[in-house]
Every structure is written in C-alpha cells, then in structure tokens.
Amino acid sequence: MMLPEHKAAINELDRISKKKIKPDLDTDAIEEIERVIASSLEERTEVTLTVFDPFEELQVVGIVERVDVLQHRIMVDGEWFRMSDIIGAGA
C-alpha cells in the first residue's frame, strides 16, 4: 500500500524527469520563423507555430493579428506568445 504523499512525490519526479530542454535555433531557422509570421500578418493566412513548453508539445494554429516589437511577442487569434518561445513555424 502506498501513501498519497508518496504517490504524489513519485508522480512529480516522473514529470520532472520528462522535462525537455529548449533547443537553440540557428539564424536560418529564426529567419524562416520571422518570414512565416510576417507573411501571415500581411496576407492574413493561417500559420502553424511550434511553441516550446518543457513538458509537452504545443502547436498553435491561427492567423497572426499583431506583432509587438518592443515586448518581442505576437498575437495569434487573441492570445499573446513570446517570440523567444517559438521554435518552429509553417504555413
């Protein structure tokens, strides 16, 4: 028999062990992401962004509505995402 506290601790250790490390993007990948974002903003086309999360795979699909250059973030379908969290983009 296992105590609830032990089970919670085991689940937390399992979650932490699956934590991913954010990949470093080269300049070509960054330029491609910027190109796709600019194209979506100008032409109002749908874009698929891969957003880094240490515990799960996040895909954001929508149209880029705004770009905030000062705070380095973009708005997709009413939600803000930091540019530094975007690790992939496709049209």
TrEMBL record:
InterPro entries listed in its UniProt record: YolD
UniProt-listed Pfam families: YolD
Name under which the protein is recorded: YolD-like family protein
Organism: Paenibacillus thailandensis
